[in-house]
Amino acid sequence: MLKVGIIGVGTVGTSVAEILRDNADVISARAGVDIVVKSGVVKNLNKDRGLDISITDNVDDILNDDEIDIVVELMGGVEEAFEVVKRALGAGKAVVTANKALLAYHRYELQDIAKDIAFEYEAAVAGGIPIITALRDGLSANHIESIMGIMNGTCNYMMTEMTNNGVSYDAILKESQELGYAEADPTFDVGGFDAAHKLLILASIAYGIDAKPEDILIEGIDNVRSEDIAFAKEFGYAIKLLGIAKKDGNEVELRVHAALISQDEMIAKIDGVMNGISVVGDKVGETLYYGAGAGGDATASAVVANIIDIARSGKSTPMLGFDKPMEGSQLVLKPTANIESKYYLRINVSDKTGVLARITKIFEEHNISVETMLQRKSTDTSANLLISTHIAKESDIQSMIDEIEGLEFVNARPVMIRIV
Amino acid sequence: MLKVGIIGVGTVGTSVAEILRDNADVISARAGVDIVVKSGVVKNLNKDRGLDISITDNVDDILNDDEIDIVVELMGGVEEAFEVVKRALGAGKAVVTANKALLAYHRYELQDIAKDIAFEYEAAVAGGIPIITALRDGLSANHIESIMGIMNGTCNYMMTEMTNNGVSYDAILKESQELGYAEADPTFDVGGFDAAHKLLILASIAYGIDAKPEDILIEGIDNVRSEDIAFAKEFGYAIKLLGIAKKDGNEVELRVHAALISQDEMIAKIDGVMNGISVVGDKVGETLYYGAGAGGDATASAVVANIIDIARSGKSTPMLGFDKPMEGSQLVLKPTANIESKYYLRINVSDKTGVLARITKIFEEHNISVETMLQRKSTDTSANLLISTHIAKESDIQSMIDEIEGLEFVNARPVMIRIV
Ligand SMILES: NC(=O)c1ccc[n+]([C@@H]2O[C@H](COP(=O)([O-])OP(=O)(O)OC[C@H]3O[C@@H](n4cnc5c(N)ncnc54)[C@H](OP(=O)(O)O)[C@@H]3O)[C@@H](O)[C@H]2O)c1
Ligand SMILES: NC(=O)c1ccc[n+]([C@@H]2O[C@H](COP(=O)([O-])OP(=O)(O)OC[C@H]3O[C@@H](n4cnc5c(N)ncnc54)[C@H](OP(=O)(O)O)[C@@H]3O)[C@@H](O)[C@H]2O)c1
Question: What ipTM was assigned to the predicted interfaces of this complex?
């Protein structure tokens, strides 16, 4: 029999205990041993968890319990969780976590500390979708060319509703908060930070890249408005918040941002709160993984899968997929300024003669070539210029946007959305 | 260093050797050891394989070579491959195969023989998509409620072309043969047998069900005609060849057939030669896996992933996912006659009065309730009745079709396609 201690018996922790209880028949048949939860740790002892396990508010009760083989960390946060997990590993206990923030900052330290002890985190990326297993074990024969994913269900729900039901950004944000999909402070989701944490984890497995959130381009969906959705639809695109990792020579670009993507791509067909991640390998071509990216049960499904893996074989794969660095071909992070993309711009201008000519000239001066340009009336005295470009360089676009923002007939900083 | 012998250096075997050579940098970093192909076996020694490995035409050269750690079986066929693989396991060598026919017939014997020796087969289902890993390891916490998949790229290509480009069945079959997607004798693909082999493998992992092709319902796409495609489009369906496994109480139904499926389902959006498999777990909900189901490189990507797994950890998971049977809840195969579904029927009738009334009455007598009925002119003197039903029982539908076929005004055996 294998004994589990759960630190953090909240949404996911409660589901983990329930699955280990409700699905014990199939779990013990697959794992070869019975797996039981011995105890859990919470902050507030007064809340009823509806579970038949011993609950305390002291992590020592789990960390110092010699009977416990596996510690499941589901308390969230970064530094406190890091301390707890280090102590668990120090005590020789296997660890399973769903904590993407912890991993976004400390995954390489944790790999070094864990050494031969199993440390698993399937639930940290895209909840119930077994993307870590797929990428780390299933696609291990490939050089990964790119990863492109819908990794945040809240943003995807909002974009889908704006597209299909013509809802405004503000209205759908409010509704998402009421439905519990978005927090009171929605920045972590709509600002792209949650997706960035997940992208960094995948980038380590695919490329061995040790980057932190501060190192990469992170933007959200907070600039997207109905005009942009309408433009996208007209030109055969969907707008999605994407996490993108792309290999280019010995450089890897990592970025999270709203993006226009052709409606023909499988990723563009993923709607509502669902997540989906497309991975292109040099040998396998494109593969795609789809499912629920959040929710107690779906996330706990991945946590329990990791527990079963550990029951079956202890540690079977290097934590971040690499047993040693790639000889002579270690990859490095591409500087954000050098990223290339097509771009879409929305520029709100006063409706005067000469404006178009002036804007066009500035594009030329920055080496940015226009693919399509539409002018749409905004108010009686202003218009939106909706422009898509050919491939251009991030630094050129940014300096052009700065210049355009300063023009006397431009009413607000231009909104830019990348096209993939 | 780990040494591999490849038995069968054809389409997939050649790609395996190429990947181990071309991607050696990333493979050795991920596996922790170098992996090299020592030798290969073929039938025809005169064909140049373009590989720098020793090639023989005698399997003993690999099976009796003590230096070889892993035997990769890529010769195809059932009984001869079974003998070869048994000998390899008997010699203590790990085995990797892509041979779905072998597994459709002998997977449980192989599991018994392999015991603690690794026997892996990721490539046997859906080529490059890591569906075995996902189902066996990633979803192991779930009772699997259903599996529904596009597991044959040839059939999916044909259905897609008929739907999008209005091509006839005969024309697209001919084109598929010219493109090399379909064999001169296409029965194995269009008759559903290839998909059935894959479905049986997945059913073992999901449910522990030991069924053979002879035990389950297998039909193909060879009855599907442009009229059916037109009906499907009109009512919001796509037509796909699906492999379906579904749990119902302690019974599991297994079936392969063409099916009408709502265009809103993710599976319905998978077009062309691509494969996709949707798996519903009781905790994770729906997940879906998409990618190339065939082709040398994509298939070899999965073979090499298995080799890397073995290099990392020997055997880490029970071959068919279960370490022991499920206590008190072993599942059994549902008899085909008891399967329930909605159905679509195309009945070609002579255009006479009284026909509709007569047909309607026969439906009633067989307890089959009609959902929609269309009549479409076929020739000057005949018409097609296109009928969809509510949920009915397979045995009722079959006996009704037998009765209708015998009617004097019915010109051919009615064509039936299930609706999922
Ligand atoms: N929810 C999802 O859909 C989802 C999906 C993927 C990943 N995750 C990740 O899973 C983790 C858990 O998320 P969740 O949604 O389950 O969070 P949650 O519902 O807020 O649960 C957190 C649990 O940890 C306990 N806790 C927090 N700080 C503690 C401390 N210092 N000492 C002891 N217990 C403490 C809380 O106790 P009280 O109950 O007493 O407050 C609560 O039981 C997070 O890392 C999250 O990013 C969640
Ligand atoms: N091709 C795909 O896309 C694909 C996808 C998934 C799974 N698979 C499976 O992978 C396996 C291999 O398929 P494939 O397409 O690579 O087949 P293939 O191109 O026909 O290659 C078969 C190889 O085996 C050799 N061979 C056959 N019988 C032999 C014998 N008795 N002794 C020694 N060598 C023998 C052949 O030798 P010669 O070259 O001298 O004829 C050839 O090299 C099959 O089980 C297939 O179902 C294939």
Answer: 0.96
